[in-house]
Amino acid sequence: MEIDVIRRYLDQEAEAIPWLRSLGIVDGAKGQRALVRIAGGGVTLDLMADLCRQLAEQLPRSSDADMALNNLDRFFQAQRSPLALATLFERDREALPVLLQIFSTSQHLSDSLVTDGEAYDLLRITEGQPVKREVLIEELWSEIEVLPDERAVMTALRRFKRRETLRIAYGDIVRGQRLDIVTGQISYLADACLEVATRFARRALEAKRGAPRGPHGRRARFTILALGKLGGLELNYSSDIDLICLYDADGATDGQRPVSNTEFFDRLTREVVKLLNEVTDLGQVYRVDLRLRPEGSRGPIASSLEQAIHYYDVLGRTWERQAYVKARPAAGDVDLGHELLRQLEPWIYRRYLGLADIAGIKALKRRIEQRTEQEGGDIHNVKTGHGGIRDIEFVIQFLQLLNGGDLPEIRTGNTLLGIAQLEQCGCLTHLERTILEENYAFLRKIEHRLQIMFDLQTHLLPDNASEMRKLAIRLGYADQPGKTALAAFEADYQSKRELNRRILDHLLHDAFGDDAATEPEVDLVLDPDPPPERIAEVLGRHGFQDVDEAYKNLMALATERFRFLSTRRCRHFLAAIAPRLLAEIGKTPDPDATLINLEKVSDSLGGKGVLWELFSFNAPSLRLYVELCASSPYLSHILISNPGMLDELMDSLVLNKLPNLEILQRMLAELCRAAEDLEPILHSFKNAQVLRVGVRDILGKDDIQATTGALSDVAETCLEQIVVAEYDKLAAKWGEPTWSEGERAGEPCELIILAMGKFGGRELNYNSDLDLIFLYEQDGSTIPGRRARHAQTTTNQHFFSELGQRIIKVAGRLGTQGRLYEVDLRLRPTGRSGALATTVEEFCRYFAEGQGTIWERQALLKSRVIYGANGARQAGEQAIVDSIYVRAWSPDDTRAIRDMRGRLEQTAAAGDIKRGRGGIVDIEFLTQMLQLKYGAGRAALRQAGTLAAIEALRTERRMSGEDAEFFTRAYRFLRRIEARLRLMNPTARDELPTEPIELVKLARVLGFASGEALLAEVTEHRERVRARFDEIFVAEERPLAAVW
């Protein structure tokens, strides 16, 4: 390029822009300014001409010409002598192309070159060549052992990592080094930082506390095991490092201020983590994860060898064995690490697989496939998408666990080496090895290019075509006639992932052979074209009326809906359990309906083969599954509407007890943290928890009081998150409600929510409404706060009424998963016509002035405060008591309650076990009448739950022991029937089925031999309840009842 042309480009922006755009520069004006700055640094026109000639040749080939030129400009500005740099580019014709390649590939590396004056010179010296692990360690230690303090060490570690990452990336990006060399170098760098941090931290700690000593005074040893990618020497540019820290002997230090070895190595581990993990102005060295240690987050952060070996021997899980496939001593005393791994090898790689071992490995296989189902749908995720990095890694580890007991050669933590060794041992074909090696390297290269761009832990492909094209060019693709670089890359990416899935699917499903079976049910499933008479014979014996439809549904169970899942394997797993499955279905009252429902539920869960495999090892779960599909459309609907809930279903079988309110609140709060849309989270959480409650209910693991209490806790937990979210939104709009007068003037005014009815008594049933009353502490107005500095203000009454409306709307909104909860506010003072939210004072005044009816006071007996700060809660609880017992009891009240009970009974059907004669309401009204009559002077009687109130009445001698025992038994019995009715048909509510087959289903789940037996028991209970109801009400109509 001629000098006069360069001069014109530098002087006239309009002249330079067309030329720059021809090189691929999008922002021509910015590009021209960059050239002007470079020339202004003292670069002569002849050198600028040469520089521009090289730019004209190189920029059109780069992935991002604007990024490359911008970073080149920054690099020139950072030089002490831009002229010397331009001279270098003229003399060494490889220097500028190499820099432009880095400048257009990674902003992170570009920043490192710009900010570290020595980095470029070191790059030119090393040429990105690999360095041995030991050399890296000693080079870093020579820098750090002379440093004075921890802060200096942290700075040196971060600078060393940045410098060496630049060297490694140079070899990767510019020299095109193999994947195993690149990941090995990244892993060696992590080892060096970890080893040196351990040396420094131990030296500093021993200076304070002395050396830790074991038995006979021997110096205690310490080792750090790396797992995951670091353990396999396949770390990427932005991985966490998974570590387990261990020491070999208990004892104490020998210093003047000794501590136990346990405390010493705990402090040592924490200090190592701090050196690497703490964020400084230079960032972190590595994100350290210690959660894979024995006992996970609950265990000590450094364990003794004896503790670790005992834990794994007694409590070690299959997933932990999988993690240890990649374990490697990375720092500290590596010999100690190898000692541990040698002792654990028989545990990791079982030579002889018992039933429990096979079940564990198969469960691991199920989790791999479920994870793929749940996470693999995002094709843009190169790690977790179908056929992605994790698919390959997990299946290779699965095969290593399965075969490693007999084949020591395959015991390696490195994925590429594992693939090669599995082929050598006959576990993979040569073609499978070749494809998996090439495709794994392809995906890891994509991962590296994504992460090195900004030094971020990402695995997501760009979501726009422009950035995808840049990525394709960085991966070596180029535009060709008839096919762009982007199109070629996308085609390769899709085909390689699909090929991976086909191979991995085949490997998983063929990992176990099938035993021959002779039962006719097995033959029926495996036979591709059974004769009609065999279908009728086999299915007829299990009680199916429409055998053709039943066979059609059975074949649907044997067929995978997703192409990448093996129908052949699914069919074989189903055949193995077919005799037991059909036998269990045949025991149900309506086998045809059960099989239809079972097919729908199974289809929604995704991989049916996974389900049949699980049932082959877990007979109780098979029986539960059939029972659920036969007798609980409500729970079945949850499963059908929420694919992927198999884990929650299985958890219900093994949970010792249901989580309490505090645990539920912690769980949901964690799920909702930083979430923008709460509704899907709330629905998913509710469905999962209700499923667990329902399954345990069906299995008889919990009584009705625990069941209804758990359902109430789930509702309270969901409601709390809605209130918090909607309050924050409203506070951003109107400001914070405050007290307007009195001692607390200017302080926040709190919301108080009263749960009423069954919710108030912690007696919610499946699909129950939520009865609520909204109160607040005092009238006043909102004031702008930190969440609403420029908000308009409004009255507290308006704020809390709008908040109530929002809560009702969110809870009751009809979406794809139905409503979360139906909220009913009709129990508030003055019912439908009353204000949505009232002050505590107004609430109390309503009853004090006599406006509150006996019915409204009776309703308050089943109320409790479920939301509000401590002081507000106390005010709410006192308001409840004051309003219930606002006036003395009279005989007229007893008659009024009995009359009200009669009116409810008139609208009830004969089979209504709730409002009908002798039903649940009889027991509740009787209990509440006694509470109202005697509770004013006896605080113990103020119980919101019916069963708790009955027990209190017995204790306070307001009900005889015989009556209390009978009413408790009858109430539990009727509520249990009500719960089963809801599970069978949520819309039927409280009426016994009139159709014989439905009555038989209900009888069966309640443990009765027939529908007639159930009806007889129900009738007996209801007659006895009504008889005692009448007798006690007559007796209690006197002004003062006798003490029992």
Overview of this protein structure:
With 1044 residues, the chain is mainly alpha-helical. The protein folds into 5 domains: 3-105, no CATH class; 174-368 and 396-429, Beta Polymerase, domain 2; 520-631, Four Helix Bundle (Hemerythrin (Met), subunit A); 701-884, Beta Polymerase, domain 2 (2-Layer Sandwich), CATH 3.30.460; 891-1036, Nucleotidyltransferases  domain 2 (Four Helix Bundle (Hemerythrin (Met), subunit A), Up-down Bundle). It is 62% helix and 5% strand. The strands form 4 sheets. Strands 2, 3, 5, 6 and 7 form a 5-stranded mixed sheet that branches. Strands 9, 10, 12, 13 and 14 form a 5-stranded mixed sheet that branches. The longest helix has 31 residues, at 179-209. It is globular. The termini are far apart.
Unreliable stretches: 352-356, 512-517
- CATH top-level class of the largest domain: Alpha Beta
Strand content: 5-15%
How many structural domains in the coordinates?
Answer: 5
Distance between the termini: 113 Å
The number of E-state strands comes to 14
Shape, principal axes of CA atoms? globular
Q: What is the CATH superfamily classification of the largest domain? A: Beta Polymerase, domain 2
Helix proportion: 55-70%
CATH topology of the largest domain: Beta Polymerase, domain 2
From the alpha-carbon coordinates, what is the Rg to the nearest angstrom?
36 Å
Corresponding CATH architecture of the largest domain: 2-Layer Sandwich
| Number of H/I helices | 46
What class would the helix/strand composition place it in? Answer: mainly alpha
What composes the largest sheet?
Answer: 5 strands, mixed
